[in-house]
Write a structure and sequence with these properties.
Elements (H helix, E strand, L loop, with lengths): L2 H52 L3 H37 L4 H18 L1 H15 L8 E4 L2 E8 L3 E5 L5 E5 L6 E3 L5 E9 L5 H17 L12 E8 L4 E9 L4 H18 L19 H14 L1
Antiparallel strand pairs: 1-2, 1-5, 2-3, 3-4, 6-8, 7-8
Helix pairs in contact: 1-2, 3-4, 5-6
């Protein structure tokens, strides 16, 4: 390697830098600007849709807001992939790399991967139809394959749940066998209230209805209750209690908060009316009942004979 070689190499690198680096910097700046503009546009459009929905009924607004958040995340992810792909193609062009054979090779590799990764394709197709059919959205509480939790993230390939203990569960969309959405449209808290057999069932049902009506009139919990409480009646004869079933319909995600308050108020109402809430107990009998005096005489005779 002679001195002329190093001089030519340095001259070539310098010329390339002078001619190409400004173009690369412009492409990088354009990519950053495009990402910022896309994020701003999607966020702005999302806010406008949410504000418009909030002018309608409150329950509908919450449902619509969760759906908009879910779709916005998917749209942003798709736009990022397109922008990064275009940036990579333009960057390769600056290095005088013929991208036509590269794209053809990528297509062949993609076809091979499609045949070999059928499970991955199934995940994407299942995720697409899950979003299209609005089965579940971010912020919903769902039960997926027997695991319950808050839906934190939805993607075309996976869905993430965080359970009550804080554990995050990741499910492949193609492997979801059962999905139960507990917070779509409206929610409900079902009560199985047990009272003693000696209690008047009609009186108990009336108290349950009164407590539900008072709860619905309260300014704190009333807006979260959609309909008056439904007291269905005597549901079954338990081992130690008469079980009365009732239900409260609430806004999504509010059923647990309203349910806890209703149970607290119902316990107070039962105490004020001397209505017994039974608990399981067992009585054990040990043979024939013996008189205490007779037992004492028997113990004395045994000690004298000894």
């Amino acid at each position: 390697m002679t001195k002329d070689f190093w001089e030519n190499l340095l001259s070539g690198i310098t010329n390339w830098g002078v001619n190409e680096i400004p173009g690369i910097l412009i492409m990088v700046i354009g990519l950053v600007v495009a990402l910022r503009v896309t994020h701003f546009a999607v966020s702005r459009f999302q806010k406008l849709l949410v504000q418009k929905a909030r002018k309608k009924e409150k329950a509908d607004a919450l449902e619509f807001e969760r759906r908009v958040l879910t779709l916005a995340g998917i749209i942003l992810g798709a736009v990022r992939i397109v922008l990064y792909t275009l940036f990579a193609i333009m960057l390769l062009s600056t290095f005088n790399i013929n991208i036509a054979p590269l794209l053809a090779g990528v297509g062949i590799v993609g076809l091979a991967v499609g045949f070999g990764a059928q499970e991955l394709v199934r995940d994407y197709i299942s995720g697409f139809f899950m979003l299209l059919e609005d089965q579940v959205r971010m912020g919903d509480v769902a039960i997926i394959n027997g695991t319950a939790g808050l839906v934190e993230k939805i993607e075309l390939r996976t869905i993430s749940l965080r359970d009550f203990n804080g554990t995050v569960h990741i499910f492949q969309n193609g492997k979801i066998d059962t999905l139960a959405n507990m917070t779509k449209g409206w929610s409900a808290m079902v009560f199985d209230v047990g009272v003693a057999y000696k209690e008047n069932v009609d009186q108990v049902m009336e108290i349950m209805k009164q407590v539900g009506d008072e709860l619905r009139k309260s300014p704190e919990f009333g807006p979260d209750i959609i309909e008056p409480i439904e007291v269905f009646g005597l549901d079954r004869f338990g081992d130690s209690a008469l079980v009365i079933k009732a239900r409260l319909k609430t806004r999504p995600l509010m059923q647990w908060l309203v349910g806890r308050e209703y149970r607290r108020r119902l316990k107070t109402a039962f105490d004020s009316h001397n209505i017994e809430i039974p608990f399981p107990h067992t009585t054990i009998y040990w043979g024939k009942e013996i008189d205490p005096l007779e037992l004492k005489m028997t113990q004395k005779d045994n000690s004298d004979s000894a």
